[in-house]
Amino acid sequence: MERKEVLSIATILLVGIFIVSIVGIAIAIPGNSGEATSRVFVSGNPASTFIVKNTFAAQHEFEGGFTVEVSAKGLAALEKIPGIHLEAVPLYYVSGKPVCGNDIIEGGEKCGEPGLPECPEGYACENCKCVEETAPPERSCYPSNQTPWGIEKVNGGSGGTGIKVAVLDTGVYRDHLDLKANIVDCKDTTKRGIKDGCADRDGHGTHVAGTILAHAGSDGKGIYGVAPEAKLMAIKVCGPRGCWCDDIATGIKYATDNGANIISMSLGGNTQSSLINDAVDYAVSNGVLVVAAAGNDGPTDGSIDYPGANVKVIAVGAINRGEFVPDWSSRGINNGDYVVEEREVEFGAPGVSVESTWKDGCYNTISGTSMATPHVSGLAAKLWYTDAETTRTKLQELAKLHDLYTEGDDIATGFGLPIAP
Ligand SMILES: [Ca+2]
Ligand SMILES: [Ca+2]
Ligand SMILES: [Ca+2]
Ligand SMILES: [Ca+2]
Fold it and tell me: Which of 166, 276, 303, 334 has the most CB atoms within 10 Å of its CB?
């Protein structure tokens, strides 16, 4: 009986905190819109987190808590609530080089860069300006090369049957003639929860998807990716500001639960995210191969980005056509032992002047470790050896046969360039 009384007191205390907190929030939170926002992972005692969830709608639910988007004032109010723990959610960026540069664009809203608003519905970002969207007629444009140099370099352009690749990026242009027959799923985690649809207002995701599995279209006149028979799950995890780690983690979990063999992420940042680490653990323990970009902030040792820097994730650096490593390709801290550890680059792959599919139904040539990553994801799909672990080992063996950069396992290209036999 004594225990019951103790419990009752605890309950009263919780209710007390609850009321105080509600009053506190009512006074302290003047609104949560129109200001710079951030994301936080909220955990803690149920009474307190209940209040938070009812004040700020949850973005995504995770084990032990949930994420919310808050303004600076909202965050200050949250920090005052007793009994909750807050963890900042990092914002990552896609690892393609900026398409628009830093020039001022005349005669229209500049678009197509992180931090800029997306074009309104019915408009597309063309040459860094929002222009009215028009449906491209059948085969109005042709690639300058049906088998781009990178696809040739890794001996791609065929295979991938029965393999599902999830591309976590800015979405995909679903009507692209060279992609549409391979798209099996299209989701968006950048809104609350998981929504249908994956419209690519940037182009980056469409480009990455094309390098993995473009099939040249039903007329055979388009472009080829590394594994044109693989299937695409396009998951939009990046919005106009970048890629929030809770949106990415939700995408990883979704892809794993829906049969992806490979998850390809041409994105990253310098900060680790516990949400992504947990999601990667989940994916890998469920037999999914996870590949990510090394990053574009080289050439300093250790400039490698997460999630690629995670020991369970394959990190890919960039090389050019002559197999040289550009300065901007992020470096790992590889110690030369051919054993992948935390913050080491695993492979080098084509990432300079890579032609692929674009969001206007045509083609574009861009650079970045974002473009190197899908060459390795595509190879994994083409060569898939029974399971993720065996496939990763096989890619490493193949890469050792084509050493790049300095001799042996190195900070820019790891084991080297994997090439299909
Ligand atoms: Ca970095
Ligand atoms: Ca890694
Ligand atoms: Ca090592
Ligand atoms: Ca080397």
Answer: 166
